[in-house]
Amino acid sequence: MKTILFAIITLVASNQAIAEAVETSFRADALARAEAVEIGERSDVHAANLDPAKEAAIRKLLEQQGIKDTFERVVSQIVENAGPQVSANLPPGKYREKLVKLFVARLKKKISSDEILNLAVGAYDRHFTKSEIDGLVSFYGTQLGRKAISVRNEVLAETESGVERLGNRWGKDAMAEVLEENPDLSREMQAAGSADSKR
Description:
By secondary structure, the chain is mainly alpha-helical. The chain has two domains: 2-141, no CATH class; 151-199. Helices cover 89% and strands 0% of the residues. Helix 4 packs across helix 7 (113-127) and helix 5 (67-88) packs antiparallel against helix 6 (95-110). The termini are far apart.
């Protein structure tokens, strides 16, 4: 589920995508709209073919897991971060503040946690059978399932923090070993650091 959520969040909240949308030409904007329509049409076709009982089970599962609330928070974060991100990618000028304000207001009207939720429903439909969804719903209805949901964020945060510490350690160890094995590079790096500090 984290992979699906991460993919959706990345797709929706990409800083670069927002900046590019502002800076692109009319032709690129038209292409982006055409792609959005195509994605929407594919989602609509998929939704039309979705068994109502399975869809209801998927939505219950997503509700049990707190996914709808997560998507609503994601939407709020996107809107909150959009202004500063877009502003930073526009050339300076008096127009910028008004443009950013209008952009954020329009973005608030367009963006929808329900559309994100529909994407998740489609993804679950493609990857799980109805009986598997029912099994997950049953599991998350148990005391153990509820505990799994309640501690999920803490487990992920602890794991990510641990990965960051490991990454720092691995990076320091790798650099120390490379410099020890290549003293010429170590001397060049020290000389470059000395020259830079004199500037």
